[in-house]
Amino acid sequence: MTSSQTHRTIDAIWRIESPKLIAGLTRMVRDVGLAEDLAQDALVIALQRWPESGIPDNPGAWLMTAAKRRAIDLLRRNKLRDEKYAEMAQTTELYTEDDLERNMDGEIGDDLLRLIFMTCHPVLSQDARVALTLRLLCGLTTDEIARSFLTAESTIAQRIVRAKRTLSSRKVPFEVPEGEELQERLSAVLEVIYLMFNEGYSATTGDHWLRPLLCQEALRLGRVLAEIAPEEPEVHGLVALMEIQSSRFKTRVSASGEPVLLMDQNRAQWDRLLIRRGLAALERCRKLGRPLGPYALQAAISACHAQAPAAADTDWARIAALYEALSRVAPSPIVELNRAVAISMAFGPAFGLQLVDELMHEPALTEYHLLPSVRGDLLAKLGRMDEARSEFERAAAMTRNRREQQLLLKRAAECGGSAN
Amino acid sequence: MRFMMIVKATTDSEAGVLPSPELIEAMHRYNEELARAGVLLGGDGLHPSSSAIRISYPEPGGKPKVVDGPFTEAKEMIAGYTLIEVKSREEAIEWALRMPDPHGFGQGQIELRQVFEVEDLTDNPEAIAKENALRQQLEEQRKA
């Protein structure tokens, strides 16, 4: 093996081992920043030694031992210093050698779970949660994170340093929350993962090819979470949603870069493996026998589309019912608008229009171009062309996306004979 | 990127001999490890070639020839596969190295093959160059 090959192999080992390593070390030293430093130190030692000695049989255990030795060194140095400055002793001794020994064993899964609850803790800003999670749980470099968010590397590096400092200064515990707090904190974790996924999925700047890393990482993290927290239905719900959405990744954009709507996508190109995985995740969620939460309901809606062999086969009545359930657990005007669309598809445009009309004065939707766009579509289907045209024109004036604007103006023109 | 870890057939697997309980247990632990790392997409074990069918086209444009198994040359056949999703070729190799020796008896062999995907995004230098240019442009916009 050449030395550059060895380095690439070490990178791969780091990616596999670092989350477990950092999680285990955090449990020992109770400080995530220090834990990451120790893990990094172990990596540096490996980078020096392995090119000559060869890669050990169990590289994970090797790295853990090296990191633990560093922790003990550090502890002894602190102790020495403490003896010199006795007055500081109380404040610096965070952990003892006994702690290190005692804490060596323990369920890796539990540690990872504790770590993710830490990196997604509400004391951190949403941006900081995402960056820190990508860094510590996905093993991405700051450069990779910066690239995914089209930000400067220094910005991300600072964000991560500050996040670690906040966790330490606010004394955020390394634990899985219990009781009522668990559900609340779990939603925060799922939110971070879904945010990561959406950031990757809805590339708004047009550069579709660079975001998939985020989608892949979010999906991978979701799958990990499903293994370490298998009793939580919404975890499986979120995984199902991401698997099914990912199955359409390749068909969402045409060869010329135009977005392709769900109903117009080439279903033969949907990734059957991911659909199957998504449906299986949804099944795992249902088997837990608790009411479906917002992620599971969205996944179930997504599954209806995935299971329809052709757009015309879509079970709109079921989708409408699922939207209704969703509007009960997570009410929002946008969910209502989607429900209206599903109802119009299932029972005819007149029923949909009735619901849309009720949304016309909804303050949250006054800037939302899809409202007049949907209304225009329903009016056109009902043959009310003049009204349809003015709705399409209104929608076109509201959207900032040029391609969408062209599409809406085209639809307005198709409504025929206008004075302006 | 996706990789298929193909486990080659052996005289035992072809004879329908089940792996030892220890190996089954080790494989189970390994699959669990893959799942817990979020890299496992799927996998299956295959029946021996005694129940297989081979379809070949000996003449271009001619009729297919259908032959029933079993087939000889165990090493040319596969006994199972595991599909994983990883970030690099090295990561795939690392995972494959952690798979337990599939059959023991000196015949164990795993072949690692990358799965074709429409866009191989992670290591595409052209995409990275394009994206760097875009990033620079955005930085400049921010400064302006």
From TrEMBL, chain B:
InterPro entries: Dimeric_a/b-barrel (IPR011008), YCII (IPR005545). It comes from the Bacteria. This is YCII-related domain-containing protein. Pfam families: YCII (PF03795). Belongs to the YciI family. Transmembrane segments: none annotated. Residues 1-117 form the YCII-related domain.
